[in-house]
Amino acid sequence: MKKDIQYQDKLILLYDDSLILFKYYFPSLSPKTILFKDIKNIEVHKPTLFSGKYRLQGTGNFRTWYPFDGLRPKRNKIFIIKYVGKWMQSGFTVENSTEVESILREKKIIH
After folding, report:
1. How many domains does the chain have?
2. Does 96 reside within a domain?
3. Does residue 111 belong to any structural domain of this protein?
4. pTM value?
């Protein structure tokens, strides 16, 4: 079954029903696939010290895990995935945050 790609860059692959965060797991840098049905919502944050601006990979608070992005300090938005029924969350950045935010708003994942 072929899926239509809605957005892709070096950090993320966005399908109609899921997204893939590249370089997610440490130390293998393997990707993580997340189904939209498993997402409660996604929040969009301005990059700050507290929202993960300088977190190149991993976690600083044992709650939010970030895949590797060596250019995260230069990105203009940070997306935080809140999962259904889970305490843990994932943070990620993209190359074109305006386009990704628009797609996720259309899907009513960003509130």
Report:
1. 1
2. yes
3. no
4. 0.94
